[in-house]
């Protein structure tokens, strides 16, 4: 970045805002011409397009621009997300409904045949359908407005908008077709209704995808990464297939007639002949599935024990299989996905960065054209800073960016900016760190207060506070181990210990607040966190004192007073809050602090990935309900002869696809891959076909192999970016005793665009101007 982008912000934004009216008045005296409101509106919209990486190719007449700003206003967009959320949440209430106290079909069967008559609550016919219709009509209105704003030509060139209208049409048609028969179709003798196939339920996640440009980019990048993933997957499956054949040859043999023209059957080798009998390798499909599960280590070492018990050398077979498949090929796949997905995503974000540059330059061209018309003495290509200030006043900017931009404009209020200077103003939107200036400490006249202030402000005092917090945790752990049965007494050691440490925490916070001052206290996030935890501890300790008296009393008053809350509950709350104070240690270690900030950034910036996770879960849950609903009910799937490790023996009756909520839980269980072979063989037996296992294998490939590895790629990129930037930025020199009064730099990753900003290249001037010339609705001489 240029020097003007990264210099410390020494001017106060409040001063700039306080003098804005005077500066604007002075600017009007120097430039008496008034800005055209329609031109300002165009510039405002283009600047907002730049902020949100939107395309400039939309209508620019005043009425359309006002509609455009209304459409992209926060409350309209939140309304759209609310409609999408309601439509997706309907799956929990629609038939089959998830509104029951349990999904365990064994308990539901016993309640139905016992004294407790319970069943799932089903909504009245037409209620969820009416809500769904309202949501679809909202999406239809959204499509009409969006198509009007971009124009017919852009609509025909947008695959997402074309898919939008097609899915709306299919959803409305499916709604009308299924409404008349949905509430009357019932399967007699089962625990639930089985509705007709509703195609629109599979299409609902599309509305979430199309409403987020970043989500659409991520989907496109994943799609472009699939060919490389497929190449490694083919190699992985060849590896599994090779070891499957070798395993069948090692651990089973064909028996029966073996002469010419005779058929033979592969069965496990009998112990009487060779000493090995492994049922996992009795068929090609079963052996392949067994090794595929072994690749995830879910059934290790169970499947190895039969062969390994016979001869220890057979362990070499399984060790080689896992070493090659798990530690080499899977890690190679992670590397391929990281490299390819990161590259495709960066290439896609380059397009977004280009749109931002185009939008900023278009705003400049609009304003400079006005400047040419109003002032003959002005430069050929320049914009008055006062005009830019008027634009910024009307634009919805993040608070931090608004402060930086207004501060910069305030220093040049009476000048003009050319295209490069205009762009430099909006480069402050991409600033990925911010310099915070610590306010000066309060001044005290008494020497003992000055000494105490210096001690509190010293960094060693923070180390002391962390040592005390660690000592508190250590003593609590020891007492919970030694005196757990006596902790409910009012004179227990743990209660006394809690009282002493809470008093210390309260004194510590009071000293920091008084001696360091509120202005400094509030900019330290760790201080605010400690204050909230300490406040909670003090409230709980006061309740303990009111209910049970002083912890120093030798009398046990627990049974002699009427209490509102049990003592043990108060002790538990106190020690849980004490555990939270341990988090303050993180700020003292750079690596731990960086990991925590990376996690917080992921929570803020991974909305696109979270949305894609919702999409794949939703589609597979609906598909699972349509395929497997009711097939593992206790009434039909129970068996008197239980096999060890089977679905029935493990009492997995609550893990089923009978409703949307339970389907999500099953998908999560399979995604974790622990014991997922139980579901593979259970649903194979329930439907009497091995093809049922393909559903779980495909889900494992999509969720674990593809999605999780793409997520790992972004986690690595986020961490590496923050680590490099934190090492590159040097803080100002600190004084040993007064280190708390100087400035500090905060590294921020506000979005995925910021994450890849350093790898993006500046577009050429010719490319930007050519894109502006192609605008259908804008007449600018460029």
TrEMBL record:
Pfam families linked: Ion_trans
Sequence ranges assigned to domain Ion transport in this UniProt record: 120-341, 458-719
Membrane topology, as annotated: Multi-pass membrane protein
Keywords, sorted A to Z: Membrane, Transmembrane, Transmembrane helix
Organism: Branchiostoma floridae
Cell inner membrane found in the keyword field: no
A Gene Ontology term for the protein's cellular component: lysosomal membrane
Main location: membrane
Gene3D superfamilies per record: 1.10.287.70, Voltage-gated potassium channels. Chain C (1.20.120.350)
GO-annotated biological processes: calcium-mediated signaling; endocytosis involved in viral entry into host cell
Protein name listed in UniProt: Two pore calcium channel protein 2-like
TM region(s), chain numbering: 75-93, 161-185, 229-251, 314-338, 460-484, 496-515, 527-550, 570-589, 609-631, 660-682, 694-716
Subcellular location: Membrane
InterPro entries in UniProt: Ion_trans_dom, TPC2, Volt_channel_dom_sf
GO MF terms, alphabetically ordered: intracellularly phosphatidylinositol-3,5-bisphosphate-gated monatomic cation channel activity; ligand-gated sodium channel activity; voltage-gated channel activity
SUPFAM superfamilies according to UniProt: Voltage-gated potassium channels (SSF81324)
PANTHER family reported in the protein's UniProt record: TWO PORE CALCIUM CHANNEL PROTEIN 2, TWO PORE CHANNEL PROTEIN 2
